[in-house]
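Good morning,

Attaching, inline, the backbone tokens for the sequence recovery test we're adding to the shared suite. The designed sequence is right after.
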């Protein structure tokens, strides 16, 4: 009988905390988290944001999915400080998904960290999600990519969980999340930061730091090639792994079709060589249309 490893991915991590965790930004995605990430970088922090997660999705989203599964779906043990230190030990601030979904575990692990709840008009948030996240995850190419690329598999798996937790990126899902953060965090340790309203004054006072010169960063990826950047990053991953992907596609086709004759087999083999290039063209076309 085959023996399968039962340990979690996080249990194979050996990282340790190299700097104290100082800030937990627990606002939902699309509430100004990239602007806050940029601001924290300017203040000298080393923040962990979704854009950092995407540098190594197999590791980061694989671990993040385990933490989310444990909290929301009772699959495995909930994360402790040891787990977060192994995962996020080189960072002193966290923002965006998946971390913002782990308010209970993070505040218990780091009770001395200051907590920020970024927020925005709920109706505007719903529109923003529908115009960005929902558009990207509606690309037809994901149905193929998740079968042949580990990064894409973990990304799609993570998104499906996040969409479920937020009731499909809806207003009730957002408000429920924000109310939960308020209930978990003592009022004196929580800054509610309204995107487009608050700035350096509010953030610096809360963190006990001097405000930098210049305006507070206002980064809106939906107006700066968000889709094209996402599409091109995906195609770079595909191109980097093209030999493995071509092999995986051959296996996928072999499983999907009965090769009834040598001619049929040769036709499928010829078609395989262009499938990856077709996926790449499809992604770029979809992302360019979305940004147009």
């Amino acid at each position: 009988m085959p023996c399968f490893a039962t340990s979690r991915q996080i249990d194979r991590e050996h990282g340790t905390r190299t700097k104290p965790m100082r800030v937990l930004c627990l606002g939902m995605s699309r509430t100004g988290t990239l602007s806050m990430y940029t601001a924290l970088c300017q203040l000298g922090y080393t923040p962990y944001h979704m854009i950092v997660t995407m540098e190594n999705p197999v590791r980061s989203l694989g671990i993040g999915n385990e933490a989310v599964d444990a909290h929301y779906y009772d699959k495995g043990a909930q994360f402790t400080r040891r787990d977060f230190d192994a995962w996020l030990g080189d960072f002193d601030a966290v923002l965006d998904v998946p971390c913002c979904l782990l308010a209970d575990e993070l505040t218990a692990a780091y009770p001395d960290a200051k907590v920020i709840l970024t927020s925005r008009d709920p109706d505007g948030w719903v529109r923003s999600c529908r115009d960005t996240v929902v558009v990207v995850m509606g690309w037809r190419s994901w149905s193929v990519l998740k079968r042949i690329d580990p990064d894409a598999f973990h990304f799609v798996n993570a998104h499906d969980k996040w969409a479920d937790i937020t009731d499909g990126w809806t207003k009730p899902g957002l408000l429920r999340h924000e109310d939960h953060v308020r209930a978990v965090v003592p009022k004196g340790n929580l800054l509610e930061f309204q995107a487009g309203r608050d700035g350096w004054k509010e953030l610096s006072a809360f963190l006990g730091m001097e405000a930098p010169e210049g305006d507070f960063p206002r980064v809106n990826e939906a107006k700066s090639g968000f889709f094209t950047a996402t599409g091109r990053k995906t195609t770079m991953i595909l191109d980097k792994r093209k030999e493995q992907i071509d092999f995986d596609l051959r296996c996928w086709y072999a499983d999907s079709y009965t090769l009834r004759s040598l001619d049929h087999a040769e036709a499928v083999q010829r078609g395989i060589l262009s499938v990856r290039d077709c996926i790449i063209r499809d992604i770029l076309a979809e992302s360019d249309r979305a940004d147009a």
